[in-house]
Amino acid sequence: QVQLVESGGGLVQPGGSLRLSCAASGSIFSHNVMSWYRQAPGKQRELVADTTNGGSISYADAVKGRFTISRDNAKRTVYLQMNSLKPEDTAVYYCNFYQLGHDYWGQGTQVTVSS
């Protein structure tokens, strides 16, 4: 089992920045993928960015150039630095941890971009 604890959401004005963190604990193996998803009201959950333990990274087109995903393997933590936030980035953001065919989810953290 893997447990995920997220932090860092909140209310920010358009153009502002936030940094999300997600710390993993439990039975963690060397090969895994850590990701951030988001779900806006009335919409399906979508992948925002992901990173493998080997350092591969990918982003959704909507956040390229504004968001940066990173991970600290020693701390078993993944981060999402979000800059130039837009109202359409408003959503609940979820951390996801994938290994050995299993998905684990964090509890979600609300990000609201509004003036």
Query: Main β-sheet, in a few words?
Result: 7 strands, mixed
What's the helical proportion of residues?
Answer: under 10%
What is the ordering of alpha helices and beta strands?
Answer: EEEEEEEEEEE
**Rough shape?**
globular
Please state the average pLDDT score.
Answer: 96
Count of DSSP-assigned helices? 0
As a whole number of angstroms, the C-alpha radius of gyration is 13 Å
| Spatial gap, N to C terminus | 40 Å
The oligomeric status of these chains comes to: single chain
Which class of secondary structure composition applies to the elements? mainly beta
* Uncertain regions spanning at least 5 consecutive residues: none
Strand content: over 45%
Query: Total strand count, please?
Result: 11
Short description:
This protein has 115 residues and is mainly β. It contains no helices and eleven strands. Helices cover 0% and strands 57% of the residues.
Explain what the structure shows.
By secondary structure, the chain is an all-beta fold. It has no helices and 11 strands. Strands 2, 4, 5, 6, 9, 10 and 11 form a 7-stranded mixed β-sheet that branches. It has a 4-stranded antiparallel β-sheet with strand order 1-3-8-7, with no helix packed on it.
Features:
single chain, 115 residues, 7-stranded mixed sheet, 4-stranded antiparallel sheet, 0% helix, mainly beta, 11 strands
Please render the helix and strand layout as text.
Layout: E1 2-7, E2 10-12, E3 18-26, E4 33-39, E5 46-52, E6 57-59, E7 67-72, E8 77-82, E9 91-99, E10 102-105, E11 109-113
